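Can anyone check this?
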Amino acid sequence: MFVRAAVVLAALVAPAPASAASAWFPHPEGATWTYEWTDSVYATTPTEERVTVKEQLATSFQLEWISGAGSGTMGFQESTAGLVNTNWQSTPAPQSFPVLCDVAPRCANSLAGTLYNVIWGSRVPVLAEPLLHGTSWSSRGGADGSVTSRSQYVGREYLTVPAFATPVRAAKVRTEIVQAGALGDPYGSGVRFVWWVYGVGPVKVVFEHAGGTNAAVTTATLISTNQSPAIPPTDANYFPLAQGRRLRYRWTNTKHMTTPSVQSFVVGASANNTARFDVRHISGPIRIAGSYGFSLRTDGTTNNWANSRVASLSRFPPIGPRFVPKARRLHFFTPFDLMTYGLNPILPATPTAGQRWRVTAPSRDYSVYGVTGTTTIVSTRRVKVPAGTFQALVVRSTLRQAGFRFGSGMRTSYFAPDVGLVKLVFRHGDGSISTAVLLSSR
């Protein structure tokens, strides 16, 4: 008999391009990992488990394992939201283990194995990416999706495991897991820690199961592999999407709005690296209420939508694009309008100096903005604004909107880790300069 499970993912996570391949769980042909795992109550004798790559197809791959306790396969898919578990099949868990379904016969759930402990309660995604400071996500697991979880990237720390002669730097993820309605649901609930090493995959798992004074603890450790640790990308988060964040900006234009407009932005809702910023008027000539939607994925931070209601005493020159009716043409009413104008992404997932991207036509961005141009990560620079002094990432865009000088020019944006946009200077083609600065954040 085999334990089996699968899930249709098309509506949940869109496939990522091949370039989004994750080095947090690499899977080249011939890769092997050997784990040793125990359970303090139900499997006290260590079990050695050898994991290999069975097959690969585009962004999907299958891993296979074999041990003295059984064998099985598990499928994964790389997406722009992170690593997703798609299916599994294996010999059933030993009869001594708690039943993780509401009935015992043909139960497709198991925690008897390393990979099962990695995916339990968090299949979509197993690991959110990009893995940046403050990243958290909700997920479900179990064969029928009845197990829920909340994961938090804790940070990086050095860890000693038998597979490597010296300590390795690992990304630590803490997950709170709840299962209700199963015969063994205390065992299916608890707190799990997984340590991921870039270039290798998971190297240690500790699952502290719920229960009474004799609650079980499952531990899995990597004892050998032919994969080598690599230097991970930065985990600095230059545009945090955490719910409740508050930012206040002041912006002016040297010709068209010399009286400052002060506006407040609040992350009103956030889930799985997608957030809604709500904007409201504080003082000045632009009375606005609106919202902006952003997503962070492996291909960068993207502005997905915006809407607003505005009454403005300032009269700005018109901007295009000229191929849409005048009633539908764009306007600059907030610092976020200035920041998102022209092309996505606003930032790459892990920005580094020298990165460059441009608008292509046809594309969604060209159809929305009618802008051609290029954005470049210039450097990091110390910048002082009313909210404080920051070591900020400097991002420069050259923008041209045919027929509209005010919609053309050079924009320089400054992003600080764990804060977001702290300053923006837009030198418009009509000779005016828009400047936005961060007044406060919390």
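Reply from J.R.: I decoded it. The chain has two domains: 3-225, 246-441.
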